[in-house]
Amino acid sequence: MSNELKTVFKEIEDYRALDKDIILDALESALVSAYRKDTGASAAQAIKAKIDIETGRNKLFVEKEVVEDVMFDATEVTLERARFFEPEAQLHDTVEVQVEHTTNNFGRIAAQTAKQVILQKIREAERNALYDEFINREGDLITGTVQSTNARKVTLSLGRAEADLLRQHQIPGERYRTHEKIRVFVVEVSKSNRGPQILVSRAHRSMLRRLLEYEVPEIYNGQVEIKNIAREAGHRSKVAVAALQDGIDPVGACVGMRGIRIQNIVKELHNEKIDVIEWNSDAVAFISKALSPARVTGVFLDDDPIDGKTAAVLVPDDQLSLAIGREGQNARLAAKLTGWRIDIKSVTETVQGALDNLEIPPLDTLPERHADLIAESLRIMEKKRLELAVMPEEYKTLARFAGIVEQLLQEQRDEEHKLYIEQREAVRSTMASQLFELPMDVLAVSQEALDILEPFENIGEVMLTCLVDEERIMSRFTDIEGDPKSELRTALDIINAADLDQLLAEAFSIEEDDELEEEGQESVETQAEADATDDTAAAETDAATDQPEVMLDAFGQPIVQERAEEGAEAAEDVGEPVAEAPVVVDAPAQEKTERREELIVEVEIGEDEGEREFELERQKGKQQRRKDRQRRRQLVLDEESGEVIAKRRRKGSRGSWDEETWEDYDY
Q1: Which helix (H) or strand (E) holds 184?
Q2: Cα(first)–Cα(last) distance of the chain, in Å?
Q3: Residues paired with residue 244 on neighbouring β-strands, in sequence order
Q4: How far apart are CA 238 and CA 260, in angstroms?
Q5: 39-43, long-range: CB within 8 Å, 24+ apart, which pairs?
Q6: Is pLDDT at 454 greater than 90 in this prediction?
Q7: Within 10 A of 82 (CB to CB), how many other CB atoms are there?
Q8: What is the mean pLDDT of residues 271-287?
Q9: What integer pLDDT is reported at residue 480 of this predicted model?
Q10: Rounded CA gap, 299 and 286, in Å?
């Protein structure tokens, strides 16, 4: 018996790749469950099992009460026998007593229960072991084998686990064949009842980072640092690198001898073009390099305190299309890489616009200081209008005049920003500090208006912006139906009339209730998953209980064979049907419009498609919680008393909103 147990124990340990203690714990739990099923012991009665793998013997210890006369042998024991196991036992004490019960005495139902418990424990331990194995590889590269493909995702085999390569994480234009080995980036690993759910990507920008670390020893050793990556998978990427050690060329190290290092990465990413750029702390120089291969005439920065950072970039006429790139790709990637919005302007159009507005400040000062340069620029622009040849020196003259114009405009913007900041500081000093701690959902405005105001983070910033420059914030509501501007003014007036200390305390109390509610919801979901697992095991045991007894004929052959095990395994192998992906019909392409005389390309900074999907998922929960808090809080102005009343309602016992449970607070 000991040899058979040791053999089976070793096979399970090797095949399942589990620790000895886990398997032993599963066997002991199975023995306890079988004993409970065989004897009908209560769940409140403590039962322990100990198995000796070397000898194959098992011991069962059952908790019993010490009494004088035993009436129920399953729960009571005499004082004499109790002191055999615990010498200091007294009457009415509870002691653990070894029972004379072996596995040979178990019936068919108890044996089937033990089997189901062992399978459940081992599967659960195997799932946890797989999760622990792959959670450590989150954010790293891994090689998988294509197992199946459909319109929605590609399933990869990682050995003992599977990974999902969703459509939005695939490189556009790349085709995957069954049994093909591909390298992917592990984005996320999460737990589930079917084992670890592994989400991988080939379009994530961090995959390019990991490939560079593997191919470039200087990056792996810390001599070269990757500052930022802007990637449009399958098309083009820009990488900003900086040297952390003197004497190292960061760009040359990444490209390699004759470009061998970067070519290996390009082949891995389906011939994706990769631009390696040296990072520079000077924003002007960095933006100029980020727009390569285009040549840049000048870069002029505008750090607006409200609208953010914008860079006006001047390029020669013959470099305009190259700087913009196909469908704005080059400028868009440069904006992602540098963190600045980029406006690209040609030299000729900038000069023409300045010549047409010389009477408008601040350009009205140019004729006095640069009369000769203006006259020369007018002559050159007339030659271009007549389609005459323009010499390179004349283009340099236009570029110098365009630079002077943009520099003058930048100085005016800097002066306006300085005055605006001083005005903001002066107004802020007169405002209550509690306003800058109030969350946005206290405002009694529509959810659409709250979404627009979300970048301001708190009510104090909204009120401060309205007091300094109301048009800056009201211009955001032009696309909303109704009268959102009046609604916002009324909501801010109500806040001003309220007791800010009490309103702030009310806001914090609701946020605490939300946190407690979320924790309770998580505990309910965890308990529901545990109950579902227990119900599955119970259902399997009940199904095994319903199996007919094995009957033997006159020759000793079984008439009815049990198929419980085969049925359970077949049920596991059958997967859920995969829903077919919806058919997406492309909308008709918009008609191309004629090129305007003044071409200004404005590129917004955005995230990669794969990262945007995750960000949207995270924002859904945040927006829903904000909506719930807003429904529970309402500020109204009592016309009779002239005071602001904060109405708040709580959830009823069944989780539904009760309109009768409003609580009024007078501020």
Answers
A1: strand 181-190
A2: 80
A3: none
A4: 18
A5: 39/74, 39/101, 40/74, 41/74, 42/75
A6: no
A7: 24
A8: 95
A9: 81
A10: 10
pLDDT given at position 146: 96
Residue 565: strand, helix, or coil: helix
Cis peptide before 293 (omega within 30 of 0): yes
Enter the pTM of the model: 0.66
Calpha distance 165→393 (Å, rounded): 55
CA pair distance 222, 219, nearest whole angstrom: 5
Name every residue whose Cβ is closer than 8 Å to that of residue 572 and which is 6 or more positions away in sequence.
none
Question: Contact at 8 Å (CB) between 297 and 272?
Answer: no
Question: What is the residue-wise DSSP string for 66-123?
Answer: EESS-S-TTTEEEHHHHHHH-TT--TT-EEEEE----GGG--HHHHHHHHHHHHHHHH
pLDDT for 91: 84
Token pair in block for residue 255: 């490209």
Kindly tell me if the per-residue pLDDT of 123 is higher than 70.
yes
Could you check whether the bond before residue 577 is cis, i.e. omega within 30 degrees of 0?
no
The 3-state DSSP class for residue 472 equals helix
pLDDT in tens, 600-647: 344 444 445 555 555 555 555 555 555 555 554 555 555 555 555 555
Phi and psi at residue 432, to the nearest 5°: -70, 140
d(C-alpha 216, C-alpha 254), whole Å: 6
Q: Is the dihedral of CA 52, 57, 58, 61 positive or negative?
A: negative
Q: Closest by alpha carbon to 121, among 10, 5, 21?
A: 21
Q: Is 261:218 a contact under the CB 8 Å cutoff? A: no
Question: What are φ and ψ of residue 62, in 5° steps?
Answer: -115, 140
For the chain, helix (H) and strand (E) counts, in that order, are: 22, 19
With a pLDDT cut of 70, the percent of the chain lying above it is: 70
Name the CA radius of gyration of the chain, rounded.
37
What is the Cα–Cα distance from 457 to 445, expressed in whole angstroms? Answer: 15
Three-state secondary structure along 376-387? Answer: HHHHHHHHHHCC
Report the distance separating Cα 373 and Cα 449, nearest Å.
50
Residue 271 and residue 264: Cα distance in Å, rounded?
10
Helices 108-135 and 2-16: angle between axes, nearest 10 degrees? 30
295-330 pLDDT per residue, tens: 999 999 998 887 789 999 999 999 999 999 999 999
Residue 437: per-residue pLDDT: 86
Phi, psi dihedrals of residue 481, rounded to the nearest 5°? -70, 155
Other C-beta atoms within 10 Å of 194: how many? 12
Closest CA to 498 of 633, 630, 644, 637: 644
- Strand-pair category, 633-637 with 197-201: unpaired
Which two structure tokens, joined as six digits, stand for 424? 């903001």
CA distances to 129, 194, 291, 389 from 529, rounded to whole Å, are: 19, 12, 52, 78
Look at 394 and 48; give whichever has higher pLDDT: 394
Strands of the sheet with 644-648, listed across from one edge: 633-637, 644-648, 663-666
* Residue 598 clears pLDDT 90, i.e. is over it: no
- Name the burial class of residue 621, with classes exposed (0-12), middle (13-18) and buried (19+) by CB atoms within 10 angstroms of its CB: exposed
Interhelix angle 500-545/609-632, rounded to 10 degrees, is: 110
